[in-house]
Amino acid sequence: MGAYILRRLLLIIPTLLGIMVINFVLIQFVPGGPIEQVLAQLEGQGDAFGGFASGGDGSEAIGEEAYIGARGLPPEFIEQLEREFGFDKPPLERFLNMMWNYMRFDFGESYFRSVGVIDLVIEKMPVSITLGLWSTLIAYLVSIPLGIRKAVRDGSKFDTWTSGAIIVAYAIPGFLFAILLLVLFAGGSYWKVFPLRGLTSDNWADLSMIGKVLDYLWHITLPVLAGTISSFATLTLLTKNSFLDEIKKQYVVTAKAKGLKENRVLYGHVFRNAMLIVIAGFPSLFVGVFFGGSLIIETLFSLDGLGRLGFEAAVERDYPVMFGTLYAFGLLGLLVNILSDLMYVFIDPRIDFEARKV
């Protein structure tokens, strides 16, 4: 097992390097860099994108005219900005310097917030962890019992209508379901049962401990429901199919022939083998929920988490935040994949990855 883990850890290096190279190269061709953003704000343009569509007189800008800094700002000021942002160096040198800093977990500071990238991530992380963790736990608590029940009653009316319901839920986009929840239960057009934004109320600090917990749960209800809706289908059907495969095996037939009750056979023999793939996938599912749907959900419910941070960094061309979070979360995702394999071995020691070639 040690050799397998070592191979997987070594494989992280070229994988992560490839991710960073591809994104760094792509960003070089995207118009409207951080310097253009600063110049656009100084000139009252709001953002730099308008400068790439038309010139100062409304006509199409061509060549140097497309550069927003060419309209009335001293070249010395632009050169100073380039030095401050590090754009006076060739792209290859900038990339190598960036990767050397990232290897030492030095992610620098945001261009526009004057705050360290790590501090920004730590500040925003609780919101995203809240959504990801609660959504994952609720998905497991609902999907596993439902999947087992569907496997036991395979082909029944219960199995049919629940399959239809979860497939419909899976087909509903998360943002659309979130809007529906806002309209129905957050004072949109019907009932004002839940708050519209935030994770806590304004008077949260003055509440008792029980009051704080209830206030927190009250605020996260709608965002968590919106983030969980699409997770049920895959996990429920995976649980059902895993149980169906195990129920058809010989050891189950033998256990029933010995007179064991169905629940004893189901939860004493089948459960451990059937749940192997489901439980071992918990880390990956959590990371998927954590990073996958956070942007839209956080935006709709005005939650200041990592999703909004990444979106704002992309709009502002805040490269330290963009590449720093990409590197950190890419590394986290690769490590979680290894953790998932270790979960298989922990749940079922018969599994051996030593002979597996990576």
In summary, what is this structure?
This protein has helices spanning 2-27, 34-42, 75-85, 91-103, 117-152, 157-171, 174-185, 209-228, 231-247, 250-257, 262-274, 276-280, 282-292, 294-300, 306-316, 319-347. It is mostly helical and 358 residues long. The longest helix is centred in the middle third of the chain and has 36 residues, at 117-152.
Give structural notes:
There is one protein chain. The chain is about 70% helix and about 0% strand. With about 350 residues, the chain is mainly α. α5 (about 115-150) packs across α8 (about 210-230) and α5 packs parallel to α16.
Low-confidence stretches: 47-70
Helix content: 55-70%
Radius of gyration: 26 Å
Number of helices: 16
Q: Mean pLDDT, nearest integer?
A: 77
Number of strands: 0
Order of helices and strands: HHHHHHHHHHHHHHHH
Q: Indicate the overall shape.
A: globular
Strand residues, percent: under 5%
Going by helix content, strand content and strand pairing, the class is mainly alpha
End-to-end separation: 13 Å
Profile the largest sheet: none
Which tags fit this structure?
single chain, mainly alpha, 358 residues
List the helices and strands and how they pair.
Blueprint: H1 2-27, H2 34-42, H3 75-85, H4 91-103, H5 117-152, H6 157-171, H7 174-185, H8 209-228, H9 231-247, H10 250-257, H11 262-274, H12 276-280, H13 282-292, H14 294-300, H15 306-316, H16 319-347
Helix pairs in contact: 1-16, 5-8, 5-9, 5-13, 5-16, 6-9, 7-8, 9-11, 10-11, 13-16, 14-15, 15-16
